[in-house]
Amino acid sequence: MEQFLFVKQEFGTLVLIKTLALVFLILVYCLKAYLLTRYRVVKEISVPKGDTTKGIISSLSVIVCPSAMESTRDITKNWLEFFIFHVGILVAIVVSFMIPYAPNLLQPAVTTLFMIIMGLGFIAGFVRIIKKFTKPDIKVISSKDDYFSIIIITIFLLLGAISMTGNREIIVAFLALTAFLLVYVPLSKISHYLYWPFARYYMGKHFGRRGIYMKRR
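Above: the chain sequence. Below: its structure as tokens.
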């Protein structure tokens, strides 16, 4: 805990910048969410053959049903990698706020756990980078933003994991990168998670009306 107290005392400006970056991210996301709700939804004229609510629930729950999608059907190589990577990111985000605002919660047992999770997330991210550069089917659909995003997020996970050791330089670098990401993410393809629930909702509603639901293999 003590090794994180210096941040607010010595790097108050960095903490302020990070807070302002968070406000920017929230404002951009609110604007994007508002614009998404302004799109005109096509009215279904087909005869209902199923339950739209069931379809929506089925569509949204696909993230925890790897067998339902071809891209994640291989649990050990795809879904597990996806899960570890995104859990690592979630923990890194939480840690980036705990360090300046709640360092007292970063007890040794907690930092060790967080380090392991973010470390595994880094490994998963590194594997994904290799796939992006080596698999033709992934390369063909990847843009420059895709490459930059996966690399910067993987570095973010690495710095987050090392920051749990209490290294001052790494902690500052981690927080500085977090501030950058808070501005960059809502303007990049990383913000796909904002669109995901909207897409799954409308997809589930559409196919649910037609009686088509997710199949578990």
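The mean pLDDT is 84.
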